[in-house]
Specification:
Structural class: alpha+beta
Shape: globular
Keywords: Heme, Iron, Metal-binding, Monooxygenase, Oxidoreductase
Oligomer: single chain
Number of domains: 1
GO molecular function, one term: heme binding
Pfam families: p450
Helix content: 40-55%
Family: Belongs to the cytochrome P450 family.
CATH architecture: Orthogonal Bundle
Number of helices: 17
CATH superfamily: Cytochrome P450
InterPro entries: Cyt_P450 (IPR001128), Cyt_P450_CS (IPR017972), Cyt_P450_E_grp-I (IPR002401), Cyt_P450_sf (IPR036396), Cytochrome_P450_Monoox (IPR050196)
Bound molecules: protoporphyrin IX containing FE
CATH topology: Cytochrome p450
Largest sheet: 5 strands, mixed
Distance between the termini: 57 Å
Strand order of the largest sheet: 1-2-8-5-3
């Protein structure tokens, strides 16, 4: 059912509980979710806009109407907190608990202000040159005819860009600790792996790998922080990377990151920043490879706007069709396929009430494909973004919404719009694997198998 239009009751306890998804007794829906998370979300959506189920013995409610999405993320965001992986899987607690992705209250607000002060639109624009240079160098190292798994290649690419913009490190330098921590984290959050739901004290191989990778990462980052701290104030402020900026401005902002906050912040940015962007790039390239008409319009726009040159941050605003292609790709394949919250008080959603301590799943993946808001929802149609539409604002929220929306949204959108022409004007990708890949949501919306391609180099631009 949809939201009630006759105003909501102030008496939070007066609503009824949402309908319950049929699950197996005792273990609730845990196995269904583990087997096929996407099919599980489909089942939830079939049952209504607010649906109860149980995972690992904990109460969950799926929320699928844009009006309720807005209520939970924006207008009543004070009535929820972030759901930590560790609330479901006690081992997950270890992921950057002091980073801005998971902190709450005063600590979160302070961190968010400091980060917004350094992660300004101006600064992000200045990262544009790094983005195109790093991408151009990598693509030019690929041989004509080479077979590449683009999801893996793009993951290293976006990681290199972040290593440079966050720490001023090259990945060749100390990058392997970064790659190791990224893949251990994804493995750790894999909802299809049963070990995710085992108590933390059971030392599975995945957990041992995770613990080792995080501890090596912390040692490296600690060393980098020490190196930067030994720089004088002038050379720190001459640097443009996020770490130096945080160190240089921390006292002026009146909030000083502790050592562990700083480490967690960098781990958070690396993780939140590279995997989602790399997936967005992978799915966009996959879609463009299957739609030659879209590819030719992109190339035409790039010739018209850029001539023979690589794009700069200043060109991005003029790349309107590229923007529509990226938006449409983020609609069909939102890398953050769902956001999660826990109710800190009873919340009324239309006629239903979600009791305090219920966990809430808000799946972009389903809402973005809901035929009530999208004509022909499964079709890749960048033109649907050409005109404004009547659809509710929160029918589309690839970057979340409200106070905890993605702090890297501008960075990611600019990166995608710079990388597409930089890559696709140098090489073409011939798809070798399934054009409609099976999906395996982990912490992000991963393809179940590598997206394999053959690379064809294009005639040089200049
Ligand atoms: C296409 C790429 C990206 C997508 C789809 C994406 C998506 C999201 C979403 C949906 C959230 C909200 C999570 C929630 O409400 O629970 C979020 C938060 C966040 N994102 Fe991104 N993101 C992307 C790129 C980036 C980049 C490039 C960075 C950093 C450079 C970044 C850093 C963060 C951080 C730090 C948060 C937590 C903000 C807070 O809680 O205050 N993201 N992202």
């Amino acid at each position: 059912m949809g939201p009630s239009t006759d105003g909501r009751s102030d008496d939070q306890s007066s609503g009824e509980l949402p309908p319950q998804l049929d699950g197996l007794p005792l273990i609730g829906s845990t196995l269904d979710l583990a087997r096929d998370p996407i099919a599980f979300l489909d089942r939830v959506a079939e049952q209504g806009d607010v649906v109860r189920y149980e995972i690992g013995g904990l109460p969950f409610t799926g929320v699928l109407h844009p009006e309720y999405v807005e209520q939970l993320l924006v207008t009543e965001s004070e009535s929820v907190r972030k759901l930590r992986l560790g609330d479901v899987n006690s081992a997950g607690n270890e992921f950057a608990p002091e980073g801005v992705l998971f902190t709450e209250g005063e600590q979160w607000r302070n961190q968010r202000i400091v980060l917004q002060n350094v992660f300004t639109p101006d600064r992000i624009e200045r990262y544009g040159t790094t983005m195109t240079n790093v991408a151009a160098r990598r693509v030019e190292s690929w041989d004509d005819g080479a077979k590449l798994a683009i999801n893996r290649r793009f993951s290293v690419l976006t990681l290199s860009i972040l290593a440079k913009t966050l720490f001023d490190l090259t990945i060749e330098d100390r990058g392997s600790v970064i790659t190791a921590v990224a893949s251990a984290l994804n493995e750790q959050a894999d909802s299809s792996s049963f070990s995710t739901y085992l108590p933390a004290w059971i030392p599975t191989p995945a957990r041992r790998r995770y613990d080792r990778a995080v501890s090596e990462f912390e040692t490296t980052i600690h060393a980098v922080i020490e190196e930067r701290r030994s720089d004088d104030a002038q050379s720190l402020s001459d640097r443009d990377d996020l770490l130096s900026l945080l160190l240089a401005t921390e006292t002026q902002n009146g909030y000083r990151h502790s050592e562990s906050e700083l480490q967690d912040q960098l781990l958070t940015f690396l993780f939140a920043g590279h995997e989602a962007t790399s997936l967005a790039l992978t799915y966009t390239v996959l879609l463009v490879a299957q739609h030659p008409a879209v590819a030719s319009r992109l190339h035409k726009e790039w010739t018209d706007v850029l001539g023979d040159s690589d794009p700069t941050a200043g060109d991005v605003a003029a790349l309107a069709y590229t923007d529509h292609v990226v938006r449409e790709s983020l609609r069909l394949y939102p890398p953050a396929f769902a956001v999660f919250r826990t109710a800190t008080e009873d919340i009324s959603l239309g006629d239903y009430v979600i009791p305090e301590e219920t966990n809430v799943t808000i799946p972009q993946f389903r809402v973005h494909r809901d035929p009530r808001w999208w004509d022909d929802p499964e079709a890749f149609d960048p033109d649907r973004w050409e005109e404004s539409s009547e659809r509710p604002e929160y029918a589309y929220f690839p970057f979340g919404g409200g106070p905890r929306h993605c702090i890297g949204m501008r960075f990611a959108m600019m990166e995608l719009k710079l990388l597409l022409p930089t890559i696709l004007r140098r090489v073409e990708f011939e798809l070798l694997s399934d054009p409609d890949p099976a999906l395996a949501p982990q912490a992000t919306l991963q393809p179940a198998e590598d997206v394999r391609t053959r690379v064809r180099t294009r005639p040089s631009l200049r």
